[in-house]
Amino acid sequence: MTSITLRVGARDVAARLDSNGHVHVDGRGYRVTAVSPGIYLVADGGQRWRVAVAEAGGARWVAVDGQVAVIELGGASSRSSGRRSGHAGAMAAPMPATVVKILVAPGQEIAEGATVLVLEAMKMELPIRAPRAGVVKAVRCAQGELVQPGVSLVELE
Amino acid sequence: MIKRLLIANRGEIAVRVIRACRELGIDTVAVYSDADAHAPHVLAADRAVRLGPAPPRESYLNGPALLDAARSSGADAIHPGYGFLSERTHFARACEEAGIIFVGPPSTAIDRMGSKVGARQLMEGAGVPVVPGEAPEDQSEWALAAAAARVGFPVLVKPSAGGGGIGMKVVRERDEVAEAVAQARREAQAAFGDGTLYVERLVERPRHVEVQVFADAHGNAVHLFERECSVQRRHQKMIEESPSEALSPALRARMGEAAVAAARAAGYQNAGTVEFLLEGAGDTARFYFLEMNTRLQVEHPVTEMVVGVDLVHAQLRVASGEPLPWSQASLAQRGHAIECRVYAEDPGQGFLPQAGPLLLYREPRGPGIRVDSGVVEGGEITVHYDPMIAKLIVWGETREATRRRAVEALRECYILGVRTNIPFLLTLLEHPRFIEGAIDTGFLDREGDAVRALMPADIPPAALAAAAAHAAPRATATTTRRESAGGIDPFHSLGGWRG
């Protein structure tokens, strides 16, 4: 018998594997059979699902019927929530990108959700929005500049 | 016939063209950037030449490097694919001057269609409808208001110079003209240093319907019917289909004739697409020339499935000097086809493009299902290029059968490691507006957020069970071994299992 905690979004889910190869999730039993590398047939007696699973650095990517989730193992990890606030909080590029437009200047008052920058990556525009209302303290990028993820591009006072 | 073809592209379209060449006995030369050294298109070709570092400017957009690669590998022709250099007059001309066949139109035709104003004039001359408009010489508010009244409200006031929507104003009534003109002029003056304005009738809630055309060097030109591409997000097409629900047989014939007239006026050869804005539907609908794409389109498989042709074969034959393989009378649409573009972008995060490894990548298979892709499991989606992973194209006897086939195929498309737009595509395919076939080009920009909100939030717990089992490979392995040892087919054994 093995118990595992799966973290799905903000929720922790307990899973238990019994000696018969059944998996219990949220009090329901499932039989899981590997059908090809990474593909499992999951049955609960009534319904069946084909589920794809792949491992990536302590997390499992799963896909079923066109839906995808990234599940972290071991329960209350702060990684996912940290990443999320990193995206919304700092006005930074989520990936290497080129600055296409700068829509604010130092000293300017901006509202929460206002678009401050437009970046471009992979031929697509990415608007960067203000996480809160405030006054722009500094713009730390130039039009046409290639910026790296995680670097603060616009700062608020 | 072409002997050795260099494909000046990457990804799915390079793989697509290489397959066609193998079928026709043409040698293939792939080109690659450092990011693509082991990409499927490189492995598929008979030989491969490195272009340079990953950024497109230094690789796939580097015309001189491509011509050098063609010369050094002994290629007598270049296929540009779509994007990159496919619509650059100078590249087509450089090929012509180097004595290398450019698989596409003559550079003069690319040039003629490259200028919006020039193309509009050319089309008017050829009797192809364009959006009604006027550019009065008298630029006073009164003259512009009079022009707007003649064109008919609602109108769009647009600066003559520039583009990108800057200075464009929608005017619904005569009373609004003065303010719109003043504003548009200010903005145009500031942005382009030229405040000249013109007035165009506003086409409200238009559909994007394009017609595939094909012409050869012997004076033959045909159309291969329409593709409807109204499902687009910020001008990026997402789902394309043929036939269009909005066309009646008479309208289809008129649009086809207009498209052929456009191709002839441009002195066109090879495969091209004439894009129209469609206002309304059926016999009373009006259509207007938008632009001509002087290349093979991303969505060309939709036409291939419905008309039963191979457009790339035809491109290679026509580029070799052969006549068109079809007459207009021999072409007909049969059944329905839908293409879904699978992009590495996260619909849950404002369609943010995603880069990352393809940890698991399995394509659906089955009757009427075609997947054009240029990626493999274990490969990577990089930040350097377009985020399109694959195109799923399905064919069915009716639109509804095709739609359902597309839904099932997308559910069987397993991509792990990067987020994709598959959940959004599924929601869209099941949306009442799509089922009705009543989507205009502005639909996703107006109601995309509401569609996104319909995406399922939680993954079924069964997926968590599989994740947990995957986490304990020993338990799974034991189960499988015991079953195989006992000679029980796991698929059959499940039927009798009771939870």
Question: Which features characterize this protein?
Answer:
heterodimer; A: 157 residues; mainly beta; OB fold (Dihydrolipoamide Acetyltransferase, E2P); 2 domains; eight-stranded antiparallel β-barrel; four-stranded antiparallel β-sheet; 16 strands; B: 499 residues; alpha+beta; Rossmann fold; Dna Ligase, domain 1; D-amino Acid Aminotransferase, Chain A, domain 1; 4 domains; eight-stranded antiparallel β-sheet; five-stranded parallel β-sheet; 23 strands; 37% helix; disordered C terminus
Mean pLDDT of chain A: 84
> How far from one another are the termini of chain A?
54 Å
User: Treating each run of at least 4 consecutive H or I residues as one helix, how many helices of chain B?
Assistant: 18
Major beta-sheet overview of chain B? 8 strands, antiparallel
Q: Rg of chain A to the nearest angstrom?
A: 22 Å
Q: State the helical fraction of chain A.
A: under 10%
Class by SSE composition of chain B: alpha+beta
Broad shape of chain A:
elongated
What does this 3D model show about the protein?
The complex is a heterodimer of chains A (about 160) and B (about 500). Chain A has about 160 residues and is mainly β. Chain A has two domains: about 70 residues; about 70 residues, Beta Barrel (OB fold (Dihydrolipoamide Acetyltransferase, E2P)). Chain A contains one helix and 16 strands. In chain A, strands 1-2-3-4-5-6-7-8 form an eight-stranded antiparallel beta barrel. In chain A, strands 9-16-14-11 form a four-stranded antiparallel beta sheet. In chain A, strand 5 and strand 6 form a beta hairpin. Chain A starts with a strand and ends with a strand. Chain B has about 500 residues and is of the alpha+beta class. Chain B has four domains: about 100 residues, Rossmann fold; about 70 residues, ATP-grasp fold, A domain (Dna Ligase, domain 1, 2-Layer Sandwich), CATH 3.30.1490.20; about 250 residues, D-amino Acid Aminotransferase, Chain A, domain 1, CATH 3.30.470; about 35 residues, no CATH class. Helix content of chain B is about 35%, strand content about 25%. Chain B is built from 18 helices and 23 strands. Chain B has an eight-stranded antiparallel beta sheet, with helices on both faces. A five-stranded parallel beta sheet of chain B has the order 3-2-1-4-5. Chain B has a four-stranded antiparallel beta sheet with strand order 6-9-7-8, with helices on one face. In chain B, a hairpin with a 6-residue loop joins strand 13 and strand 14. In chain B, helix 4 packs antiparallel against helix 5 and helix 12 packs antiparallel against helix 13. Chain B is globular and about 70 Å long. The C terminus of chain B is likely disordered.
